[in-house]
Amino acid sequence: MSELSPRRRQLVLAVCCSALFLVSLDNTALNTALPAIQRDFDASTAGLQWTVDAYLVVLSALLLLAGSTGDRIGRRRVFRAGLALFTTASLLCSLAPSLGWLIAFRALQAVGGCMLTPVAMALITNVFTDRRERARAIGVWSAVQGITMAVGPLLGGLLVDTVGWRWIFLINLPMGFLALALTGQVPESRAPHPRRLDAAGQALVVVLLATSVYAIIQGPATGWTSPQVLACAVTAAVALPVLVITELAQREPLIELRFFRQPPFTASALSAVCAFAALSGLLFLAALDLQNARGLAAWQAGLYLLPMAAMTIACPPLAGHLTATRGPHLPLTLSGTATTLAGLLALLGAQQHTPFLLACYLLFGIGFGLVNAPLTHTAVSGMPRAQAGVASAITTTSRQIGSALGVAVIGATLPATGYTAATFAHASRPAWWIVTGCGLAIAALATLTRHHAHRSTPPGTEPRSTSRHRRQASRASG
Questions:
Q1: Whole-prediction pTM
Q2: How many Cβ atoms are within 10 Å of 197's Cβ, its own excluded?
């Protein structure tokens, strides 16, 4: 690929960032609309959980496949298809006649969404070849995600209170069509040695995620001993070890389990699950608390979340500086501590007093704002350059799995309907204990990154073909 002009590189960055903005805004704005959707469709708490998790489960299951498909058949082609599908599914979501159709269209949205985020990052990496320019481009990319966190709940609330929740999906159309029109300016690229399709691993990932989330969400609604819940729980329990055995036997597996031999990488993946489980669960909890229990308008609920959103924008630069100068241990420890304090403050009665509740959201925003930079750094540091993309993709998938589990687990602890501010504060205590536990887990996992010596190729993480060639060379020289 010939060197692009600075103007065209910025255009490529704008197109990629617009796709991220679409996906992130849709998710953050939707949480504010959940009570309105519940009223329109007479939905249960489980129904609302599926409205969010249908998207997250499909996205988690297909992210790695979408990234490798872009490497194989062309990233621009996959990116364009993802934009078209996401925009079309957004229109269908806005026209959904029932909750069941909305959930189905959300799953279709996720098929398009999974083609956007990993492929867009690969496009940015391929276009911005200068190290400093690439760092600035990734900084802009990260800032967009923070902005959607700030804008999403408030914009979603305003749309719900003025023109209705369906406009949360309709606003995707103009930006989606514009980005689609500009994809012709994005250069096509492929990986020089794309990974093979791991059909067995992909199928097992889908089965594992779908059955485990189904069991968690439907357990409180249909009973933990109901045949369908038990069947899904058993299927998930069997699918996990089968997935591990299958992936270890693959030459080019969908999930590189050998990476998890490195404690820092394992800490990064598990911390990502905990951080995003706490975030998605808290947003789900806040939507029901602020609107259904407290009776606030949707736009007012968005204002309540502004302290948290502001910290998710303000803290990432500090986290990046601390990671660069002190390593990932300190920002991860601070993140876990702030998240834990947010949960404990809520458990001590902050939910019943608005100033303390806002302080709780502020602390949580600090915790979440500090976590992403050290997670990304820990995931890819010490990995061979050829494997850095795969390592980053696994951590990204961990984030989405955490989001899906957070909505499922925290939603399962909440009452279905018929609660007041006082009763909801009591009923939501298990949810806040989960948030507190996630914070403690992040702080504990940070210790695994303290004494990590960065090496260019940690043992056990180099490609298997490379390992084989080295062994042959060693025997020949011996």
A1: 0.84
A2: 14
Residue 323 lies in a domain: yes
Cα–Cα distance between 401 and 423 in angstroms, integer?
Answer: 30
- Asked if residue 474 is part of any domain, the answer here is no
Domain boundary among 192, 211, 228: 192
Whether 29 maps to a domain, the answer reads yes
Per-residue b or e along 243-264, where b marks 16 or more CB atoms closer than 10 Å to that residue's CB? beebbeebebbbbbbbbbebeb
Residue 140 sits in the same domain as residue 32: yes
The number of residues in the chain equals: 478
Q: How do the pLDDT tens digits run along the chain, 478 residues long? A: 557 777 888 888 888 888 888 888 888 889 899 999 999 999 888 899 999 999 999 988 888 888 888 878 888 898 899 999 999 999 999 999 999 999 999 999 999 998 888 788 778 877 877 767 776 777 677 778 777 877 888 888 999 999 999 999 999 999 899 989 888 888 887 777 777 888 898 999 999 999 999 999 988 888 888 999 999 999 999 999 999 999 998 888 888 888 888 888 888 889 999 999 999 999 999 988 888 888 889 889 889 998 998 898 888 888 888 888 888 889 999 999 999 999 999 998 877 788 999 999 999 999 998 988 888 777 766 565 556 556 767 888 888 899 999 999 998 888 766 667 777 888 889 999 999 999 999 999 998 877 554 444 444 444 444 444 444 444 444 4
**Domain of residue 305, residue span:** 257-451
Q: Give me the amino acid identity at 291.
A: Q
Is 462 within 8 Å of 388 (Cβ atoms)? no
How many structural domains is the chain composed of?
A: 3
